[in-house]
Specification:
With about 400 residues, the protein is mainly alpha-helical. It has one domain. InterPro entries: Lcp-like, MPAB/Lcp_cat_dom.
Length: about 400
């Protein structure tokens, strides 16, 4: 493998003029080619433990029967002497093992930061991390091949929000907890999608796209929940302490470990995260027709979702999200994804959010008691949005 797009305009613009330059400046690093050579093999590596479990369950048994087996071992500890298929024992023994490097205090600091970010976090996840991710053409291919467009963006957003909210709560990730069980289901969903893509399509371009849902793509995706997430919040005026930054990386390192990503490759700090992201983007083509279709589906989700009763409310919400897209993402990415630029009145929205954040932080960030109150307020805001999505998402199909 080579960094095939390193000399292309879209790559240079991102890293020399756009959000990539901001990341390099923030990390204060000069990426070294040794990092590319270290990570490149991961483009053809996958979660073999998860794949073997799916082969023994969801690909052999009826859905309800397979789900009952996974639920049993997700809810209760498994032992070496368990009367269960070897693949299931290997998976759950790996997930139950608490790694020596885990610092639970740091994980909880990262979780509290996610909660205290409140609705800012949800704006960034949707309008910066998710929408911006669509411009990496190869990363989006599994969504196209699993027909995610047909299933609709409402369901996809609900699933992402449900995952993120549950895994970013304080003390949430103990073995057999609700969040742990959700991680198990997500890990096996990735394996199921990968195996089905390989089984059903002859059009998968292994040379350019790597393995479906490969380990390097997974690292880049979860870098979106840590590095890119913080970059977006900083754009909205959210202050981040060194302790919170370290905690957020540690939180997502552990979540990534539980999802089957090799822990040795998961970043501990922004320098490591920016460096691997820099080289990962060098093998990602710019957004294409599929990317634009995914972006359109995400925009139209505002109009399709029934959380708001009236069409004018939904239209206004779409304009607010578009204003965030244009504030957060590079101009050429908005243009490539065909995101309409809203009117000037809506373009004021990000400035209003920034002003509100500055006022809130003056009130709440100066002492621990008020900080904890902000955590509680933010968590309640996030859970309210999730509850609305769960209530208004179609329930007529499963993974």
């Amino acid at each position: 493998m080579t960094p095939k797009f390193q000399n292309d305009t879209h790559y240079k613009n991102f890293w020399k003029k756009g959000n990539g330059k901001d990341l390099l400046d923030w990390a204060d690093i000069h990426p070294k080619f040794q990092t590319f050579k270290k990570y490149a093999p991961l483009y053809y590596e996958v979660d073999h433990l998860g794949d073997e479990v799916v082969k023994e369950t969801y690909l052999k048994l009826k859905y309800k029967e397979a789900s009952a087996i996974i639920k049993k071992y997700s809810e209760h500890p498994i032992t070496e002497n368990e009367d269960a298929p070897e693949s299931i024992k290997r998976l759950f023994l790996q997930m139950q093992e608490i790694p020596e490097w885990l610092d639970e205090k740091s994980v909880n600091i990262g979780a509290r930061f996610c909660m205290r970010a409140g609705t800012n976090a949800l704006i960034i996840l949707r309008d910066f991390t998710l929408m911006g991710g669509y411009d990496f053409a190869y990363l989006s291919k599994p969504l196209i091949f699993t027909e995610a467009l047909k299933k609709g963006a409402v369901k996809r957003l609900k699933d992402t929000l449900e995952f993120w909210v549950n895994v970013t709560r304080e003390n949430a990730l103990a073995p057999n907890s609700e969040a742990y069980q959700l991680i198990v289901r997500t890990r096996l969903m990735h394996s199921y999608a990968r195996l089905k893509i390989k089984e059903k399509t002859e059009k998968w371009d292994y040379q350019n796209w790597g393995e479906p849902i490969n380990s390097w793509d997974m690292i880049a995706t979860y870098t979106g929940f840590s590095l890119v997430f913080m970059q977006g919040l900083k754009k909205l005026g959210v202050q981040i302490s060194e302790e919170e930054e370290k905690g957020l990386f540690h939180l997502w390192k552990y979540i990534g470990y539980l999802l089957g990503i090799p822990a040795a490759f998961l970043p501990d700090n922004r320098q490591q995260a920016v460096e691997q992201f820099y080289w990962w983007t060098s093998i990602q083509d710019k957004g294409d027709h599929d990317s634009a279709q995914l972006a359109l589906a995400l925009l139209n989700e505002n109009l399709e979702n029934t959380i708001y009763k009236y069409p004018f409310q939904r239209k206004m919400l779409m304009n607010l999200h578009q204003s965030m897209n244009w504030f957060l993402l590079d101009k050429e990415i908005n243009e490539r994804l065909n995101i309409p630029k809203p009117s000037k009145i809506f373009l004021m929205f990000p400035k209003m959010v920034i002003k509100g954040n500055k006022i809130t932080q003056k009130i709440y960030l100066k002492n621990p008691a008020k900080y904890q109150k902000l955590v509680e307020i933010g968590s309640e805001q996030q859970r309210k949005v999730l509850a609305d999505y769960i209530k208004h998402t179609p329930k007529d199909f499963h993974y």
